[in-house]
Fold this sequence. Notes:
Elements: H1 28-33, H2 38-60, H3 73-79, H4 104-112, E1 123-126, H5 128-140, H6 147-151, E2 157-158, E3 161-165, E4 184-186
Parallel strand pairs: 1-3
Antiparallel strand pairs: 1-4, 2-3
Amino acid sequence: SSMTASDMAWQSVNLVAKKLTAETRITKELAEDAIIDIAAIVADEHAWAFAQKEDECFINGDGTSTYGGIEGLKTKFNADATLAGHVAHPGSANDADAFNEVQADGLAKVMGALLSFARANGKRLASPTADSMIFEYLMATAGGNSTMTLGGAIVPSYLGKQREVSESMPSSTSQDYSAIMMLLYGDFSKACFFGDRS
C-alpha cells in the first residue's frame, strides 16, 4: 500500500526586544584614585540587577509595563489550572500547602505530571527558602546519612535532576492557596522562549 506522508508543523515565534537599562555615575577622579576597580564592581552589580529583572519577568511577569508586557510562568499557571503539568498542593494525604509539609511522595507527584518530552533536561526551580526546607531537609533526614555526608555540602540535585534557586520564586513559609508556592519543574526551553540581544 502507498505510504502516507507526515510533515512537521512549524509556528512563528515573535520575540519583541525590551530595553533594560542600569545607570551608575562615577567620577573620573574616583575611577583613577580608587584602590579597587570601581568600574568592574559597577559592571558586576549591573549584571546581577539584569539577571534579577529577567527572573522576575520570567517567573512573576503579569503583562504590565513593570515587566515589559511579559507574562511569566506564575501568571500563566494561576490563570489556567487545567494546564498540563499543573499540580495543586503537592503533598501526601493532607495535601501540602507549606514548604515544611512537602514530602517525597509529593515531589514524585510533581515529577509524574511532567510529560516525557520535557524530562531529559528537567530542572527544579524554587526559592532558596523552599529549596532548603524541601530538598535539603529531605536529603538530610533520609536514611543512610553519616556525619561525613551531613558535614559536607549538599549537591544541588534531587533524584538526579538539577536544582536551581531564584529569589523571584515565592519564599514565604506561610500557607498560600492562590499562587505558585512550591516549585517549578521541567525543561523550561520547551515551555517558553527567551532572547538576549546584547
